[in-house]
Amino acid sequence: MNKLLRKVAILGTGFVGSSTAYALINQGICDELLLIDMKQEKAVGESLDLIHCMDFLPSRTKVYTGSIQDTTDVDIIIVSAGPPPNENQTRLDTLETGAHIMNDTIPRIMKTGFNGIFLIATNPVDIITYHIWKLSGLPRHQVIGTGTSIDSSRLKTYLAQILDIDVRSIQAYTMGEHGDSQFAVWSHCTIGGKPLLEILDEKPHLATKLDLDDTVEKVKRVGFEILKRKGTTYYGIGNALAYFTTQILNDSQQTLPASCILDGEYGEKSIATGVPGKISRNGIQDIVELNFSEQEKQLFRHSNTVLRDYMRRIGY
């Protein structure tokens, strides 16, 4: 009996990569998991630790280490290589280091014949996503950044706490840069299917509890609050990467906020930025174009301008 194996590789086994690997095996998302790191012994150590989980899991994942040469037939390469920002930096300040890593690794991956999907978390994720697309020569739907997925989750978490409702009853996005210029799309935020702005109009007491601008600022800064206390973030983004992997391998058709390469959508070209995208086995099957308010249009343009200013640093 032939079985189609679901193979995933993780490039970079630091905190994010190892947390992603742990989420993948605990959820039984793939059949084989390849770990690659410039520090080979680090990857070996992580693989040994993960293998010792198998006796306590409901399904078995083959976990092993290797090199870029082993990526030929993997379905998804999760890219998490690169340093986190320091406490006095933004994610954009890590651009040159991340771009240098990709300049070295992506062409070598493509020489193996790899034709799967790149799923990217390396910061600044929007610009690194675009850079990997250009380096790889793959169709744009096969190169996906996690974008504002973790930010949108954080936004929903804050709203759930303030409104005392299950986070899964909330539909909300932040869009644009995964960074300081992101914005919340309040015009499309719903609570149990009802627009949040309508709820706030009907229930003024809630409006006194929920300051929309302050909530967005908390979403922007919470990653650095975590960084200040424990060095970097990894559990949230690790689970986000595992979730994206599940949706791709299962051909879910679910719409998720992601860093997508635009070619005319929202009037934008030659940029990767955070927008809702429909996820399929082939990557980004479709980009959902929301009808922004006038203020949201301005915020989206501003965020993309910030990204383009930094893209020039690496030649775009």
Automatic annotation (TrEMBL):
Subcellular location: Cytoplasm
Pfam families assigned: Ldh_1_C, Ldh_1_N
Self-association and partners: Homotetramer.
Protein name (Swiss-Prot/TrEMBL): L-lactate dehydrogenase
Domain (Lactate/malate dehydrogenase C-terminal): residue spans on this chain: 148-311
Binding site for substrate: R91, N123, P124, V125, D126, D151, S152, S153, R154, T233
Statement: the UniProt record of this protein carries the keyword Transcription regulation: no
GO CC annotations on file: cytoplasm
Organism: Virgibacillus chiguensis
UniProt pathway annotation: Fermentation; pyruvate fermentation to lactate; (S)-lactate from pyruvate: step 1/1
Keyword set, alphabetical order: Allosteric enzyme, Cytoplasm, NAD, Oxidoreductase, Signal
Active site per the UniProt annotation: H178 (proton acceptor)
BP GO annotations: glycolytic process; lactate metabolic process
One GO molecular-function entry: L-lactate dehydrogenase (NAD+) activity
